[in-house]
Amino acid sequence: MNRNHTSSWLSAYGSIVLLALVGACAGGDQKSDAYAEEAWAHFKKMCDAKAGERIYKSYRGVKSVLVVKPLPTATEKDLFDQYWYGDPYSNASTGDRARLAAARLTYPDAPIAQGKRGNGFDFVESDESQNLASGKKLVKYFFSPGQRQVQSQELATSPVSRFGISWEDISTTADRKYWVAGSRLTITDLTNRTVVAERIGFLIEGGFGSRAGQRRPWQTAQVMGRGKCPDVHDYSDRWFVLKVLNPNEENHDGK
């Protein structure tokens, strides 16, 4: 088990709480000192108790994955909704960024770990039925060498990948009372439905819904990154998945 708890927000705990209060007051949504203290205490409690990476088994020679549960795309209204259960820890943006998040796993010459670069999977299969008005759509995303964007995609009738990945919002109403969002990224062996790795993380919206300076609360919290455990950035999902499912080494029968 590998538990990666971020420490950056702990060292600046007092100053972050102060900034959050100032921002909330400026936006006309004043929160008391007591509320802020309770919120950050709840966030810390969840981080200490549940956050971190847990890798139970890793594999080599994996060439593709199936996205069983993609990230939902946020609407503009969602970014202001304290009770939007769309996993703002992993993504809080409108448009195609959430829908194509899994396709980033195929990008060539993109970061595969901190300080390391390399190719991703040959392709990614994604069940995008939840993003469609009707019908089920299984899409296969491919890359072209030298490009960091999806170059082609095609419809598929049935998945061929052995491993599946899912994003899930695990927030409770008690979490959202304090503008805290919980997230789970799960990697599953689809042959026997066992979880081989998972990352649980939490995000706090330190402005507590403030719209000061044209803030979009969840998006601002996700981009700023001062209140996340573990801390995540643009390629963090890619790093975690490729650490568990290595596409570049052989000696394994994963597809």
Element layout with pairings:
Layout: H1 8-11, H2 13-26, H3 33-50, E1 52-55, E2 59-60, E3 64-69, E4 110-113, E5 116-118, E6 123-127, E7 138-143, E8 150-156, E9 163-169, H4 173-176, E10 180-189, E11 194-204, H5 217-224, E12 228-229, H6 236-244, E13 245-246
Parallel strand pairs: 2-13, 3-6, 3-9
Antiparallel strand pairs: 1-11, 4-5, 6-7, 7-8, 9-10, 10-11, 11-12
Helix pairs in contact: 2-3
Name the helix and strand elements from N-terminus to C-terminus, one letter apiece.
HHHEEEEEEEEEHEEHEHE
> What is the total tally of β strands?
13
How helix-rich are the residues, as a percent range?
10-25%
Residue fraction in strands:
25-35%
Shape, per Cα inertia axes: globular
| Unreliable runs | 1-29, 251-255
Indicate the radius of gyration in whole angstroms: 19 Å
- Tell me the number of structural domains: 1
Overall mean pLDDT stands at 80
Terminal Cα span: 25 Å
What does this entry look like structurally?
Strands 1, 3, 6, 7, 8, 9, 10, 11 and 12 form a 9-stranded mixed β-sheet that branches. Helix 2 packs across helix 3. The chain has one domain. Helix content is 22%, strand content 27%. The protein has 6 helices and 13 strands. It is of the alpha+beta class. The N terminus and C terminus are likely disordered.
